[in-house]
Design brief:
Among the domains are: 110-140, no CATH class; 142-350, Alpha-Beta Barrel (TIM Barrel), CATH 3.20.20.70. It is built from 15 helices and eight strands. It has helices at 3-19, 33-48, 77-82, 99-105, 111-120, 124-140, 154-166, 179-184, 204-214, 230-233, 236-249, 266-278, 295-305, 320-328, 339-350; strands at 143-147, 171-174, 191-195, 221-225, 254-260, 283-287, 310-314, 333-336.
């Protein structure tokens, strides 16, 4: 075939292929399956979407341990990361360009909240902010500050006491030599004195003398540190008798026994609980150098004895979730040396 004949056949084939196209399958009339599925999903989403919010005050309930040595089962990584969500993946949808459509998908404020905002003459956002501020102040009253650093000078101590007042904390714990400064500056929030700090190594007579001196001051409470070595050095009956008398010498001051968790076993904690319960001690402060390391001891003690004692947990942390976790387990208060930083993180979280 010559070159001219080959070109002629090519033109004929092109004309024939042009007539093979069905006019019903033109670009204007074709509906892609993906677009049709997207339209159906969007319609179904608008009809069936239901927004649910947790009720006010609802908190997750932690299981109680029946025995101090019983270790709670920890959730798996899957349960920690995705609790409350199904494994089904939601397809990614392109955000609508039309702002009116986006506004329709945004949940509207509850009618009651809107009515309340009108009553107070504020916007819904402002009402929410004021509510968050109220909840933050209520939370701060369950927090306390441990000012047990003996290197603090008077100026630093006064500044930290002022910060505790500004945040309306529920209380401050001071060393005996810092009490006169608190008295002189008329501290408005309650303050307790820590005796036999930090290891409770003083004998019974020394502790009795310190308590007698403390009741002469305007302190609202006395925090007496427990001697962990006394568990092996003294009989249980002798310890019960000592703490009965120490409580009697405290008179009308609230006596809290502070227990350092470092090195203690669940059996040690059980023995301490039996001693303090028999001595009619109603308040216990669990002091931890590492909350994560002592978490098993803390959760076990709370699970077994939160109905026997008013429990205060003390530990340095700036993580709000750790504090919320212990509040959820029923602690009376959370105390920390860096309570101010912790409170600032709570305010940032609540946007107040």
């Amino acid at each position: 075939m010559s070159l001219s004949e080959e070109r002629t056949m090519t033109k004929i084939n092109e004309k024939e292929s042009a007539f093979d196209t069905d006019p019903q399958e033109t670009e204007e009339n074709v509906t892609l399956p993906s677009e049709q599925a997207s339209d159906n999903n969007a319609a179904q989403t608008e009809e069936n979407a239901v927004l649910t919010e947790p009720e006010d005050g609802e908190q997750p309930t932690e299981p109680d341990s029946e025995q101090i040595g019983e270790q709670p089962t920890e959730p798996t990584d899957k349960e920690q990361d995705g609790e409350g969500f199904s494994d089904e993946k939601t397809p990614t949808e392109q955000e609508p360009e039309n702002s009116e459509v986006a506004d329709q998908e945004k949940p509207a404020p509850d009618e009651k909240v809107t009515d309340w905002a009108k009553v107070f003459g504020v916007s819904v956002d402002q009402l929410q902010t004021e509510f968050n501020r109220y909840k933050a102040n209520k939370l701060f009253r369950k927090m306390r500050v441990d000012l047990l650093d003996n290197t603090l000078n008077k100026e630093q101590l006064v500044r930290k006491l002022g910060e505790a007042e500004d945040f309306t904390f529920g209380g401050v714990t001071l060393l005996p030599n810092a009490v006169p400064t608190a008295v002189k500056n008329n501290i408005a929030i309650p303050y307790s004195v820590a005796l036999s700090y930090p290891y409770g190594a003083d004998g019974y007579n020394e502790k009795k003398y310190m308590i007698k001196q403390a009741v002469k001051t305007p302190v609202s409470g006395i925090e007496l540190f427990f001697d962990n070595f006394s568990l092996t050095e003294k009989k249980k009956s002798a310890l019960v008798r000592e703490y009965k008398w120490l409580k009697w010498h405290a008179r009308r001051r609230k006596l809290t026994v502070c227990v350092r968790l470092n090195g203690l076993t669940p059996n040690d904690m059980k023995l301490i609980a039996e001693v303090l319960s028999a001595a009619k001690i109603g308040s216990v402060k669990l002091v931890s150098e590492d909350l994560k390391k002592d978490d098993f001891i803390l959760t076990s003690f709370l699970g077994s004895y939160k109905d026997v004692f008013n429990v205060v947990v003390s530990g340095n942390t700036d993580k709000t979730d750790e504090v919320i976790n212990y509040f959820g387990m029923g602690v009376e208060a959370f105390s920390s040396a860096n309570a101010v930083e912790l409170a600032k993180n709570f305010k940032a979280m609540l946007e107040v």
